[in-house]
Design a protein that fits this description.
Elements lengths: L13 E4 L6 H10 L3 E4 L4 E3 L5 H8 L6 E4 L2 H14 L10 E4 L2 H8 L14 H8 L7 E7 L5 H8 L3 E11 L4 H10 L7 E4 L2 H11 L11 E4 L2 H9 L6 E2 L5 H16 L1
Parallel strand pairs: 1-2, 1-8, 4-5, 4-6, 6-7, 8-9, 9-10
Antiparallel strand pairs: 3-7
Length: 267
């Protein structure tokens, strides 16, 4: 392994990025700029829901809602695709108070010309609830998210007196094309990554699914890097405890945590 330097602290480090193909670019580019050798094999594939009827219905009746909550940039883009299809003008969305789970989601919302009212201090569902609990009593809330997601937000906001509609905008599935590539990579000790990144619980579950029962012998010397405590919890449930966890639950926070961890390994 090449010895890292200040400009390239990840020199000599092989990092596997498992984000969906259309999203891997920015994380991979940042890691490469720090000297890492990046391998991209998607652990998730993002698909449209089987039916857009519920999302379309919510958007057609958007005037009836007080708050819109978005929990990922994927949700923003999926919603915006339907807004364009239905020819809903931005003016019809101006009355909404919009909450974004974190800066990436906020950036996606702002790129479409909408304002964001609330971004929580920590970028997890519990923090969204904390920021909104006192604001939603008697209000109508629409939560646009992935098909499979935790129910912390709707349950807690309903308990706070809100009427909450949960709408699927997209779903994440296991990309079958990644199975053989991932197994071949992990079997090759000379190419096996030093670090595997996980940016959601879905990426953790799908990684385990892609490797299957053979994974126990393929993880020697591999560190798992998690974007935050929810993803870390999922990794532990899967008997793949993370050695690296971001303090700030963003891509930047994940990269900083990897740099610190690799520095510790090399010194």
């Amino acid at each position: 392994m090449r010895k890292p330097n200040e400009k390239h602290p990840l020199a000599g480090t092989r990092i596997l990025v498992g984000r969906a193909r259309q999203q891997a670019g920015s994380l991979s580019a940042s890691l490469r700029s720090l000297g890492a050798s990046v391998i991209e094999i998607p652990f998730i594939e993002i698909r449209k829901p089987q039916s857009c009827a519920a999302l379309d219905d919510a958007l057609k009746n958007i005037k009836s809602y007080d708050w819109l909550i978005l929990t990922s940039a994927n949700g923003v883009e999926a919603m915006w695709e339907r807004i364009r299809k239905l020819r809903i003008t931005r003016r019809k969305l101006k009355h909404l108070q919009i909450a974004a789970i974190g800066p990436a989601t906020q950036k996606a919302i702002l790129s479409h010309g909408l304002k964001v009212k609330m971004v929580p201090e920590e970028y997890v569902a519990e923090s969204v609830v904390k920021g909104l609990r006192e604001k939603v009593n008697g209000k109508r809330v629409v939560l646009i998210r992935a098909k499979v997601a935790r129910d912390v937000i709707p349950e807690e906001l309903r308990a706070a007196g809100a009427h909450v509609d949960v709408v699927e905008a997209y779903e994440t599935v296991v990309p079958e094309k990644s199975r053989a590539r991932l197994r071949a990579l992990m079997k090759n000790a000379a190419r096996r990554p030093h670090v595997v990144t996980f940016t959601s619980s879905s990426t953790a579950r799908n990684f385990a699914e892609l490797l299957g029962t053979v994974r126990a012998g393929l993880l020697k010397g591999v560190q798992f890097a998690s974007i935050g405590p929810v993803t870390s919890g999922t990794l532990r449930e899967l008997q793949m405890p993370p050695r690296i966890e971001a303090r700030e639950f963003t891509m930047g926070g994940l990269i900083r945590a990897i740099v610190l961890a690799r520095y510790a390994v090399n010194h």
